[in-house]
Design a protein that fits this description.
about 300 residues, 7-stranded mixed sheet, alpha/beta, about 20% strand, 9 helices
């Protein structure tokens, strides 16, 4: 009898559980349904994209900023450590490799998804030609660009900082401006000095073209003998770079992001105005052509 009573209780409990589950499903609070194949594929793609994003940050210091109220897609590019030239630097050095950056800049220019470029700079300088190549690529982009100097932007980092449409520097960051130096064998003849002069002219002309400082003022900073104990040149801190006309404004990431979003909005507005103007011009041309044809008849 006891066994029959136990069995009846078990059956009653099972039936009660089934009823509870049925009621919960009706209310939408039951056990979650199994995900469809499409939902599983969507989640898989989303995870792969997140993994790829993390990989780009870890390996190249690059990512896309897209979770903003403006719905703009801003490519973030980091220029850190030493700018590597045609020879590989030791493994323990933190470097920015031009063979990574140049193709990425070309892809940004070609992409319809990327609206602007934000460059974070903390570099000791490095190879002159590699640095100038990156700076020229940034300067030639048609999309809005903003640079932010953090820590320091020394030597060839100066052209990189001014290559953007608008530049910021944090109050504690520094910029060291010094003459060109060369590794390896140097021949003590007039031609060597003239070659150095040409390299320096390329750097100075680029900086002067993309900032407010004059050629003479920048060269004086480069050849100053009173500031650096063991070197020739100048060191400028935060606000000083703005006063000299090299950097546009003192600010941080908040100001830089606000500026790039503002520039993207203006760029979009101007693009729409140009499209409307082109459309109106075409309409006027068509009307004139029709009038000319009717008069001819």
């Amino acid at each position: 009898m006891q066994n029959d009573s136990k069995n009846e209780n078990k059956i009653s409990n099972v039936m009660q559980e089934e009823e509870n589950l049925l009621n919960a499903n009706k209310k939408g609070t039951g056990v979650p349904r199994e995900k469809t194949q499409k939902e599983q594929e969507t989640e898989k793609v989303k995870k792969e994209n997140e993994d790829l994003k993390d990989k780009k940050i870890n390996e190249y210091g690059q990512t896309v900023l897209e979770n903003n109220n403006k719905e703009h897609k801003i490519h973030l590019l980091s220029i850190i450590g030493e700018i590597e030239g045609h020879e590989c630097l030791p493994q323990h050095n933190k470097t920015t490799k031009y063979e990574h950056v140049l193709p990425q800049l070309a892809a940004i220019e070609d992409s319809n998804d990327i609206d602007g470029l934000l460059i974070l700079i903390n570099t000791v300088g490095g190879d002159v030609e590699a640095g100038l190549a990156i700076a020229e690529m940034i300067a030639s982009l048609s999309k809005p660009t903003v640079s932010l100097v953090l820590g320091g932007s020394h030597s060839i980092g100066v052209p990189l900082a001014v290559s953007a449409n608008y530049s910021y520097i944090v109050p504690s960051a520094t910029m060291i401006i010094h003459p060109v130096r060369m590794n390896g064998t140097v021949i003590g003849v007039t031609q060597t000095f003239e070659y150095f002069e040409k390299i320096q002219d390329r750097i100075i002309n680029f900086v002067v073209t993309h900032s407010s400082i004059t050629y003479a003022d920048f060269k004086n900073l480069m050849l100053d003998t009173n500031q650096l104990a063991k070197d020739v040149g100048s060191i400028l801190v935060g606000e000083e770079t703005v006063k000299k006309g090299i950097i546009k404004e003192v600010g941080g990431i908040k100001e830089a992001l606000a500026k790039i979003n503002e520039m993207i909005d203006n760029n979009t507005m101007n693009g729409n105005n140009n499209v409307n103007k082109s459309t109106n011009d075409n309409n006027v041309a068509n009307v004139n052509e029709k009038n000319n044809n009717s008069q001819g008849q």
